[in-house]
Design brief:
Elements lengths: L2 H7 L2 H21 L3 H24 L5 H21 L13 H25 L8 H23 L6 H28 L5
Length: about 190
C-alpha cells in the first residue's frame, strides 16, 4: 500500500468510521452476554462516532471517496447487526424488536442499495441525496434501538413501545416507497452526475 493510499485510508474521519465498525462485535458480544448497560453504552459510543467522523471530515477538509463509502457502510452494519440481535428470542431480553420490523428495516436498505445500483447502471447517476422521509425513518429506527436497549437495561416492559414499532414500520415503508419513486424519476430523466 502506497503512503498516499495509507494517508487517505487512515485519516482521522476514516479511523473514526473504522472504530464504529470495530465496536459492532463488542456490542453483539455484550448483548449475547446480557450486559444491558454496557451494550447501551457501546451503542451510544458508536452513535457518537457517527457524528464525529463527519465533523472531523469537514473540520480537517478530509472528505474522501473511501470515507463517503465507510461512513454509511458503518452505519448500516451497526443498524443491521443491532436489529438482528435484538430480535432473537433465545437471548431472553425483556424487550425484543419484532421480526417483522427487523425484516422491513433490512429489506428497505437492500431495496435502496439494489435500486441505486440499477439507477447507476442505467443512467450513470452516482449522487443520491437522502430525502426527508428517509431521515425521519432513520430517526425512528435509531430511537427504536435506543428504547429497546434502555428498557432492557431498566428491565421495564413499556406498553407504548409497540406503537414505536408501528411508527418505525410506517416511516420505513413510506421512505422506501419515496426512494423507489425517486429512482424511477432518475431513470426516466437520466442525467450523468
Amino acid at each position: 500500500m502506497s503512503s498516499k493510499t495509507k494517508d487517505v485510508l487512515f485519516n482521522l474521519p476514516n479511523l473514526v468510521s473504522l472504530l464504529r465498525i470495530g465496536l459492532i462485535p463488542v456490542f453483539l458480544w455484550l448483548i449475547i452476554q446480557r450486559k444491558a448497560f454496557l451494550a447501551l453504552f457501546i451503542f451510544l459510543v458508536a452513535g457518537t462516532t457517527d457524528v464525529l467522523d463527519g465533523f472531523f471530515a469537514r473540520l480537517l477538509h478530509k472528505k474522501t471517496k473511501i470515507g463517503a463509502f465507510l461512513d454509511p457502510a458503518a452505519d448500516k452494519l451497526l443498524m443491521t447487526a443491532s436489529y438482528i440481535v435484538l430480535s432473537i428470542p433465545s437471548l431472553n431480553s425483556l424487550n425484543l424488536i419484532p421480526l417483522w420490523l427487523t425484516a422491513t428495516v433490512i429489506g428497505r436498505d437492500l431495496l435502496i442499495v439494489l435500486g441505486a445500483l440499477v439507477v447507476y447502471r442505467m443512467t450513470g447517476h452516482t449522487t443520491f441525496l437522502p430525502c426527508l422521509l428517509g431521515k425521519i425513518s432513520t430517526v425512528f429506527q435509531v430511537s427504536t434501538l435506543l428504547l429497546v436497549l434502555f428498557y432492557n437495561y431498566l428491565q421495564v416492559l413499556p406498553s407504548y413501545l409497540k406503537w414505536i414499532f408501528y411508527l418505525t414500520l410506517i416511516f420505513t415503508v413510506l421512505s422506501c416507497i419515496n426512494y423507489i419513486i425517486i429512482g424511477f424519476s432518475l431513470i426516466s430523466s437520466p442525467q450523468k452526475s
